[in-house]
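Researcher: We're teaching a course module on how sequence relates to structure. For the next exercise, students receive a sequence and then see the predicted structure as tokens, so they can try to spot secondary structure elements on their own. Here is the exercise chain.
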Amino acid sequence: MDEAKPVAIEAAAVPEARAAMHYPEPFYSRVRGRVRRALGDFFGLTHFGVNLTRIPPGGASALRHTHSREDELIYILEGEPTLVTNAGETPLRPGMCAGFKAGSGEAHHLVNKSDRDVVFLEIGDRSLADTVVYPDVDLGRAISAEGRRIFVHRDGRPY
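Model: And here is the predicted structure for the students to work with:
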């Protein structure tokens, strides 16, 4: 018999998520050191995902990106990251949040320019048909003919 999961836990007790796929190099090194705890996965959520994410000084949450079909919201818990969007840079502090509507073209990511870790919640709707554009680099995420998420060059060639 499977042991039942608790109904409530300390979020930091959820094991670090092992990403099914990492950015190909030379891009992965830009987010190395980022730690995600997939809180939604731990509880078996299927309609939306929640990650507790920590980025060290000098790190980034992701490459600057925009989603075609997935809404995304971030909420800052600790530290003072810089939100980088199409409009420029916005300093954030604990208690602040930002949202990104699917298909808006508003590319975004967090950069930690401080000397302390940044901790935040990432919330998204898990759209399986979502594609991602990374406007600053030759990278995108697409759906393969088999329905898998894959990284591609801007011209569509797989990495």
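Model: If you want an answer key for the exercise: The longest strand covers residues 49-55. The first helix runs from residue 39 to 42.
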